[in-house]
């Protein structure tokens, strides 16, 4: 796996990762190069009110309207991702990362950004890997690397995203979606 092949793709945790934030997680890879990798966990809603952390942004959040835990790194920071329809330029205060996904500067007034955005999700923290670390984890079988779909970022059903992503695979990965949460109860 070359580093640039995971940017814009999904990491889906294998059953080997059976506890903590990465248990049944789906991570959208925002950047991956020779210096390391960063992404955000798409399916770990925190149930926290966005306006209590970032006043003015809460009413613009896509359903479910909550803050998400983006990963275990820098939980005291927030990262906003928006979708930008078509090939339009991203709104002021944002920068396109890949495809329809853009990162937004949360210091920008929401009313400058949101009229041109298709949706918004805000994450507390992110997932990060040092140089070569992610490649080692993939080789050890901790992650499946699969293509992302535009609707993954703003899924309205984050609790089922792990299963949904696996079920849409056209190979044996689809069977992993049926892996029991607790194999001892099988």
From TrEMBL:
For this record, the Gene Ontology CC terms, alphabetical, are:
cytosol
Report the domain of life of the source organism. Bacteria
Entry's family note: Belongs to the UPF0301 (AlgH) family.
Cross-referenced HAMAP family = UPF0301
Q: Give the protein's recorded name.
A: UPF0301 protein N802_01870
Organism in which the protein naturally occurs: Knoellia sinensis KCTC 19936
